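Minutes, project check-in
Item: structure for the 390-residue chain
Input as provided by the requester:
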Amino acid sequence: LSGGIDTLDWFDYKSFRYASLILPKGTEVDQIYFLARHYPFELKTNLKPEYQGDPAIESIWNLSVNSLRLGVQEVIQDCMEREKGFYLGDGCYSSLAHAILTGDDRMTRKLIDDAFSTDFITSGLVTCMDCSLMQEIAEYPLIMVYLIWWHYRLRGDKAYLEKHYDDTIALLESYRINYEKEYLLSHLDKWCVVEWPKNFQDGYDVDITEGKICEEAHVSLNAYYLEAIHTANRIAKELGKPAYRDTAPLKEAFFKAFYDSDAHLFCDGVNTRHKSYIGNIFPFAYHLCPDSEYEANMRDMISRRKASDLSFFGTFALLQGLASRDDAELLSVILHDTGAWLRMLREGATTTFEGWGRDTKWNTSLFHLTMSDVAVFLADLDQFHLFSRE
């Protein structure tokens, strides 16, 4: 300290719950203040009336709203005190939640626009935008195809839907040309995350090690791919264009490769009979259901394992699958899972964690936006319309 007025000038902003000052003996503190920094936020959507008065769900709603209020900066970020990355995959879900809560879709548009602007680096787009990190994650651009459609269902902006139609088709063509063989994606030189962290993969029996080519066709990524093609066809129909592709042969190849018709569950990959929870969540979410026995098996599995056996990507897909079936009963069971958002709250969360608890990831951030996307399913709007299969 100089003896005069001193200012501590951080290189970057920090997220914190409290600050501890260690001062020399005899120091007098004249004034301390902190500047709260975040993107403008005005809550314009209420909690669904049927959830109002439910203390558990109200606490989850408040946790999610607070996280999105304080966590969104100049871009949609995942973690506020570590990499502060503008990640495409989970950013799709966070930006959707932010747009629903505020009615402000500029962050959603920025994510979509910035992602497509990276096609000069690679036609499959990059994982983290507006930075120097070169990384590709296979699922992330496919999730963005869904976001483009959800944004249209929210805003009805056909001009914006048209703006990125050719970009969307070029993206899917990149996957088709580079990775599709006999209607299945394989030999991915992009990281297939499936679920993160790894301890939530339920023994997913495919080698998806980051940095290695994932040679095996596997169920999760191909479910994402089928849903992206289905979504592109919906966009084409809305714009009065011919369908992008016939999904029938892709579905036939998908069922033949992965579905165990005796067990009525999907296997993780073409070279394994292992059936994981996460590997079955995506076919359920995207209505790739061959028979009623599969639906019954999944309803039983979801009732038992809920959200706390999933993490970043499976949880949103699970909630999406239930919302698209208008299954309020099972959705309520998931929301009241004591091992999920309610565990965060028991552990003192004031913003959503990077996992259900402090010990569920080796470097768990206590301020991470992804799990705040539950607000999409709590907000007072017609989620069935948003995620419907019509």
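Outcome recorded: The chain has a mean pLDDT of 96.
No further action items on this chain.
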